[in-house]
Design brief:
Blueprint: H1 2-23, H2 39-42, E1 50-55, E2 60-66, E3 80-87, E4 89-94, E5 97-102, E6 106-109, E7 115-119, E8 125-132, E9 141-142, H3 145-153
Antiparallel strand pairs: 1-2, 1-9, 2-8, 3-6, 3-8, 4-5, 4-7
C-alpha cells in the first residue's frame, strides 16, 4: 500500500513538473478562451480539405471538408484523434472494422490505429477533428487532400515544437 502511494505521488509530481516546463514557452493565445459560435454551421463555411483552427500545448482543433466521392486517406497517427461529424455520411474504417457514421456522430481513433473515412453521401462530409497532441502546423490550410498530402510528404506540415512536448 505504501509503495503504491509513493509511486502515485511521484507520478503526479513528475507530471505536474513536466506540464510547468512545457508551459513556459507557450504562445500568448493559449492564455485565452477560444470560442467557435454555432460550430455546426461555421465549419461548412471553410470549405477547404483541412483548416487548422486552434493549436494548444496538448491538442489541436481542425475543420475538414471531404468532397463527395472522396476520403480522408488511409493513415496512422502517433497521436489520438477524435472526429466530430456535422454533415454528410461516411464509411469509417478503423483497424479493419467498418461502420457507417454521419452528422451527430463522434469517432475516437487511438494513436497507432490505421484509419480512413470514405464519403458515402451525395453531399460533402464536414467535420471537426481534435488531435492530441497536435498533428499539423498551426497555420495549415490545405485546399485539397493532394495539397495536404504533398506538404506532409515534404515535411512542411509539422506541428510547432511547443505543441508536441518535444521542446
Amino acid at each position: 500500500m505504501l509503495r503504491t502511494l509513493i509511486s502515485s505521488s511521484i507520478r503526479r509530481t513528475t507530471t505536474a513538473s513536466s506540464i510547468r516546463t512545457m508551459s513556459t514557452s507557450k504562445p500568448a493565445h493559449l492564455n485565452k478562451m477560444y470560442v467557435l459560435p454555432k460550430a455546426n454551421e461555421t465549419v461548412s463555411k471553410f470549405g477547404d480539405f483541412r483548416t487548422v483552427m486552434w493549436t494548444g500545448e496538448h491538442s489541436q482543433l481542425v475543420a475538414m471538408t471531404i468532397p463527395v466521392g472522396g476520403d480522408i486517406g488511409k493513415e496512422t497517427h502517433h497521436v489520438d484523434q477524435t472526429l466530430i461529424f456535422t454533415s454528410g455520411t461516411a464509411k469509417a474504417i478503423v483497424n479493419g472494422e467498418e461502420r457507417d457514421v454521419g452528422a451527430g456522430d463522434i469517432v475516437v481513433v487511438p494513436a497507432g490505429c490505421e484509419h480512413n473515412f470514405e464519403v458515402t453521401s451525395q453531399t460533402p462530409l464536414i467535420l471537426y477533428t481534435v488531435y492530441s497532441p497536435a498533428e499539423h502546423n498551426e497555420k495549415s490550410k490545405h485546399k485539397t487532400k493532394e495539397e495536404g498530402d504533398a506538404l506532409e510528404d515534404e515535411g512542411n506540415d509539422e506541428p510547432p515544437k511547443w505543441a508536441t512536448g518535444n521542446n
